[in-house]
Amino acid sequence: MGYTEKNLTDGERIVYRTKKHWFAYAKAMLLFFVGVAVCAFALCSEAVRPFLGTALYCGYAVMIASFLWFVAIWLDVQMSEFVLTNKRVIMKSGLVHPRITEMQLNCSGALRYVDGLFGNVLGFGTIVVSAQGGSSAYDYVTDIERFQQEVNKLSKNDKK
């Protein structure tokens, strides 16, 4: 049972739930392949032979750092919740210092949806929550268009 289920109010039910997209791992995976490339270059290049040990250690260090980054992202993905109920929008991201945003549906105009080139093609985007105190962005949200449609549909029903 997640954060949302523990904090539902009387008569509140989950209408739509989504999660973070797999593309959240892309930067960590790219960094891992850079480490592999550094190791491969060190082993195959004659110019690096005098510094082979150092070059290999650098490549290994990059691969280890990217693996740790991947694990941190995995934990964040597992702990993230993007939920729409019949009364609220609830978003939670993070493990050690979770960011939690809860917003009544009648305030959903403070939500902005952004998807770039990759997001548009692969089906993810960013939800930006604006409030008087500032704004908060939730990246790599899967199927952001459907999330937006569901919020709009419930907001219209709420106004009736």
Question: Please, could you describe this protein's structure?
Answer:
It contains five helices and seven strands. The chain starts with a helix and ends with a helix. By secondary structure, it is of the alpha+beta class. Helix 2 (26-44) packs antiparallel against helix 3. The protein has two domains: 9-21 and 81-159, Pleckstrin-homology domain (PH domain)/Phosphotyrosine-binding domain (PTB) (PH-domain like); 26-75. It has helices at 3-6, 26-44, 52-79, 117-122, 144-159, and strands spanning 14-18, 81-85, 88-93, 99-104, 111-114, 124-131, 134-142.
Topology:
Elements: H1 3-6, E1 14-18, H2 26-44, H3 52-79, E2 81-85, E3 88-93, E4 99-104, E5 111-114, H4 117-122, E6 124-131, E7 134-142, H5 144-159
Antiparallel strand pairs: 1-2, 2-3, 3-4, 5-6, 6-7
Helix pairs in contact: 2-3
- Average of the residue pLDDT scores: 88
Count of individual beta strands: 7
Characterize the biggest β-sheet. 4 strands, antiparallel
Strand order of the largest sheet: 1-2-3-4
Mind telling me the CATH class of the largest domain? Answer: Mainly Beta
- Separate helix tally: 5
**Span between termini:** 32 Å
At the fourth CATH level, what is the homologous superfamily of the largest domain?
A: Pleckstrin-homology domain (PH domain)/Phosphotyrosine-binding domain (PTB)
Instruction: Please indicate the percent range of residues in DSSP E strands (runs of 2 or more).
Output: 25-35%
**Secondary-structure element order, N to C:** HEHHEEEEHEEH
Second CATH tier, the architecture of the largest domain: Roll
Rough outline: elongated
When the domains are counted, the total is 2
Secondary structure category: alpha+beta
Helix content, binned percent: 40-55%
Estimated radius of gyration: 21 Å
Low-confidence parts = none
